[in-house]
Amino acid sequence: MLTTQHFSTHSIQLLQRKRPSEDSPPSKGRRVVSHPQHPGQCLSHCPQVVEKCLDLGAASARYVSGSMESTAFAEEVVKEAENTWGGLDMLILNHIGHSFFDFFNGDVDHVRKLMETNFLSYVAMTTSALPMLKESEGSIVVVSSVSGKVASPFTAPYSATKFALEGFYSSLRHEFIIENVNVSITLCILGYINTESAVRAVSHVINETPAPKEECALEIIRSGALRQRELHYPARTVTPTLLLRDLAPEFLDGLIRSNFRVENIKKAPAAQGSGH
Amino acid sequence: MLTTQHFSTHSIQLLQRKRPSEDSPPSKGRRVVSHPQHPGQCLSHCPQVVEKCLDLGAASARYVSGSMESTAFAEEVVKEAENTWGGLDMLILNHIGHSFFDFFNGDVDHVRKLMETNFLSYVAMTTSALPMLKESEGSIVVVSSVSGKVASPFTAPYSATKFALEGFYSSLRHEFIIENVNVSITLCILGYINTESAVRAVSHVINETPAPKEECALEIIRSGALRQRELHYPARTVTPTLLLRDLAPEFLDGLIRSNFRVENIKKAPAAQGSGH
């Protein structure tokens, strides 16, 4: 399993090989491990995460640190998995670049960079990993957001990148089915989760209780293992939102806006030019 | 009115100033015209289009030719409108870059370039035009596609760019409402239209009769003038598709695939690397 994690511009790719067990067929028992590319850039808690994976039964676990702003690095991570294990059964794409939670300030260059990290690096990793995933009849898990289905205010660049993921991967899923490629694609539509970064970014603005991150992580892995088309988590907020978006779009828009404490948004200065 | 048109990598920006009439209030009567930036690059039929606009009652009409692969050029077109007329009341974003209608071949660089033309140049033009549109309480019309709502096979890069437009502009619409910015945003969800380029690209693969382009063009302008949230054209195919996407997504996926004559798709060779 190759999982990307997001820590602003530095993304950590955690690769682990699951210890073979009786209930996992040999072709599905493989998980992939790598080692740090740039130890100096690694975030302090990565060794603990690896240790925890080993404690929980992984045959081995490693991480690679670098910036997913570069699709070259994204491809390098996949190569690392290939070189180390010669195969891959699950690719979980879960990293995002830093964005702001504010009115759009006209910074086109920020949108471009975010697209590189949140979308193009996903496409690059998928392309690189596909031969291995075809061989293992594996799974691609794309972690997206309810903001990738229904846009909210203050997230225009982020929403654009998350919407793009659905457009790309839903088209690819059709092609896999047509070509009899037995690689599943799961799109995870996450609501408000109590990760440290999400709570820090939006708790002062959103009138909602976040869902637990531990259960969320488990649901992401489960949805990939079960080869689900989509995961809605937490379903109690995500599923009704999606049902409303075409049946009553303007009502839903009003509902979304009423969920924000707009007075707590501090307006950022407008960008000078698009920075292209 | 500033309209972008798509002709592969060369995009033509048609700018016209409507002749003031009794039924249009002064602030809405303004339309904007420019002149060719690079006459050598202009496509042969542009002068005829301009002539037709004048015949139909435009006070003046001009065009600017160049490549929308560059957001710098996109901004230049808006500046041209500003310099010539000092204002703008409608921005119709309707250009797309060349893409293929085929299985995705792993060319990440193609996806990146298409995102630049189909999405980032839209954001750049919107940012540049916004001060003028705020002043005129004008309209932004974003021409998208049913492939920007529900993905089909053979359009992964294109779908990604069209989905991105919805994510970005739906978020921006919320922000305009919150800030009391009286600029409307209309998203045009077009089905299969009988433009020369669309028919050439997909008629051998799609089991569907295309809708007339003349009516489509009129509906696009009407939806912007009426400040509609979304246009579905032709409604007979687009609206039911959108209603099914959350109610019965897997049924809809099967229906979409059955609409293609897959045997007529000629498979392209895989890309060598991502070209970054």
Automatic annotation (TrEMBL), chains A, B:
The keyword Membrane applies. Its main location: endoplasmic reticulum. GO terms for biological process: steroid catabolic process. GO terms for molecular function: 11-beta-hydroxysteroid dehydrogenase (NADP+) activity; 7-beta-hydroxysteroid dehydrogenase (NADP+) activity; steroid binding. It catalyses: 7-oxolithocholate + NADPH + H(+) = ursodeoxycholate + NADP(+); 3beta-hydroxy-5-androstene-7,17-dione + NADPH + H(+) = 3beta,7beta-dihydroxyandrost-5-en-17-one + NADP(+); corticosterone + NADP(+) = 11-dehydrocorticosterone + NADPH + H(+); chenodeoxycholate + NADP(+) = 7-oxolithocholate + NADPH + H(+). Residues 1-14 have a biased composition (Polar residues). Residues 1-40 are annotated as: Disordered. One of its GO terms (cellular component) is endoplasmic reticulum membrane. It is a single-pass type II membrane protein. Keywords: Endoplasmic reticulum, Membrane, Oxidoreductase, Transmembrane, Transmembrane helix. It comes from the Eukaryota. The keyword DNA repair does not apply. Signal peptide: none annotated. Its EC number is 1.1.1.146, 1.1.1.201. It is found in: Endoplasmic reticulum membrane. Belongs to the short-chain dehydrogenases/reductases (SDR) family. Homodimer. This is 11-beta-hydroxysteroid dehydrogenase 1. It comes from Coturnix japonica (Japanese quail). The gene is LOC107324848.
